[in-house]
Amino acid sequence: MLNPTSRWSPTDYAKNAAFVPELGKAVVELLAPKAGERILDLGCGDGVLTEALVAAGAEVVGVDASSEMVAAAKARGLDARVMDGQALAFDGEFDAVFSNAALHWMLDPPAVARGVFRALKPGGRFVGEQGGAGNIAKLRGALREVLTEHGYPVPAEDPQWYASPDEFRAVYGGAGFADVEAWLIDRPTPLPVGAAAWYRTFRAGFLDAARVPEAEIDAVVAEAEARAEPLLRQPDGNWIADYVRLRFTMRKPD
């Protein structure tokens, strides 16, 4: 579920963020979709992982807040719909809900949890992964430092929910889920196109919120990349992002 207030380009996403669905394949394996199951892909993006669920024989509905990304998913022939993950419009329809790299964009986690619970059939499962506590702290810190030094009105908080396992379990247990398991995974992730392209793809909304004029964005992200370089660029010249993921499983009681 991409932040509806951000600017998302399916072309840029495919070019600069292909690692997101590639690394999400392990979450698909954890879900273990079965032929004939009806599955909701919460935050389907451009539909790359939705296709993997369909290939397993499941009937899949993908939802995302970005109309551009939903259009890209529909172009793949998928059942994709523009919908806010904080206001899901389903009631007892799904055997499973799947989500990859999406929940951290949704800033009302209890509303998301209630909607997923309502969308599932009794006994249904929710499996997924999101950014966890400490996620991309170095990348975020470098950009925030540059914006602050140049006097941009930087938002007090980044517009993501990077939860700890305890925080996550409290939210979803509070919504009625049973057997809620959540754990952090340190995942240093290669950035094949460097940090500047990452900032443009994943922090467009943050740059908007900081009121950075379009004409100045290239200079800002280049400076942030230079700030992050000693921390994240490897001796061989490759960039590694300091990703931390929170992976989870749970079920709706029978």
Describe the structure.
A 7-stranded mixed beta sheet has the order 3-2-1-4-5-7-6, with helices on both faces. It is 41% helix and 24% strand. Mean pLDDT is 92; it is low at 1-6. Helix 7 (137-149) packs across helix 11 (214-232). Helix 4 (48-55) links the parallel strand 1 (38-42) and strand 2 (59-64). The protein is an alpha/beta fold and 254 residues long. It has helices spanning 10-16, 19-23, 25-31, 48-55, 67-75, 109-119, 137-149, 165-174, 194-202, 204-209, 214-232; strands spanning 38-42, 59-64, 80-82, 94-100, 120-131, 178-191, 239-251.
Strand-pairing-aware structural class: alpha/beta
Spatially, the strands of the biggest sheet line up as 3-2-1-4-5-7-6
Biggest β-sheet description: 7 strands, mixed
Rg calc? 18 Å
CA-to-CA gap between the ends? 27 Å
Shape category = globular
What is the string of helix and strand elements? Answer: HHHEHEHEEHEHHEHHHE
Are there runs of 5+ residues with pLDDT below 50, and where? 1-6
Q: How large is the share of residues in beta strands? A: 15-25%
The chain-level mean pLDDT equals 92
The helix count comes to 11
Instruction: Tell me the number of strands.
Output: 7
Helical fraction:
40-55%
